[in-house]
Amino acid sequence: MIKLAEGQVLENYDKLLTYDRQSGWFSSSDVIAVDLELSQFPSSSFQFGFPKGSTIFVGDVLWFQVESDTVFSYPLKSFLDKFELKDKAKISILRKGITKDEVVIRKGFFAKSSEVHSLDIVENSLEERKVSSFYDFYFTALMVIMLLVALYKLIYPLVLKYIVDPQSLFTAEDFSESNALQKFFTLDIIFFILIINLLLALVMMVGIKETGWSKSLQFTIEGKPNELFFYWLVITLLLFVATILKFLFIKFITFVYDLGKKEFSHFFYLLRIVSILLLVLTLIITLVALNSPESMNSVLQYSLYIAFWAYIIGVFFLMLIMMNKVSFNNYHLFAYICTAELVPFLIISKFIIG
């Protein structure tokens, strides 16, 4: 039995709690929810009691995740200011196996100190966390990318269909003279690279937020939505420049190894692999963010390892195709692939994945 702080209780929400079961793609959660009245008794406070492992939402905004059984008081005025609320707010508590008896929500005037109850929790033991608007930004940015993809499909329908077709990765059409896509600096290729870099920058920001990678880049996932959009565009610009440098690097290596005009076929084949991997990774991130955000860290780490090996396999297929299409010594061709792809990719992967 939870022992709460003494005080004058104005409203007890225990009997108003509702139970529901929320099913997702990766897991399911039990949900306890209630609508809080915020327009009366402005000088009062809420007293909350949440069990360990639960995730707390106010409306659609993630408030915090409970690391241990917690009881704390929160002034009504601070609650209104924090979430920019007016009259009412829905609070939801998600956890597998949660019951109504484990949740306490009351409004009133409570003592400043609280005794430790049987779950060894002291009032106000909750560590304050900032309300993040990151995933509001994520879904807005994703909508922008989808609009750009729709525009691209309208202008270049055949090109888009060819790029995202996984079956064509197993053919040698990229190295065929009949392939209409033979130049890098054309509007259709530049436009597509811009869209892919926007998507890659967005996925990178999710990775920085969820995995804690690179403390020096944490500022890019903090702040208001307009700041996040600015960082997103800056990262996209840097990736766009890096993509051009990558193509020029491949062009230089093909010149060194005297492979002829194969730089674009090489570059475009791997660009298509990256595009398909990004589409799959974005779909996974979106499904997890909507259904099970607390598992994002582990899902993202496994997904990145899978993407790593998928890219390695793609480079292997590129080498097999070039062996059949390029009249070149296989030993020198292997050295070319290692110089142009494997060594740079493994160095970057070591820096990112560790």
Automatic annotation (TrEMBL):
InterPro entries per UniProt: DUF4271
Membrane spanning stretches: 137-164, 184-208, 229-249, 269-290, 302-321, 333-353
Signal peptide: none
Swiss-Prot/TrEMBL keywords: Membrane, Transmembrane, Transmembrane helix
Name assigned to this protein: DUF4271 domain-containing protein
Organism placement in taxonomy: Bacteria, Pseudomonadati, Bacteroidota, Cytophagia, Cytophagales
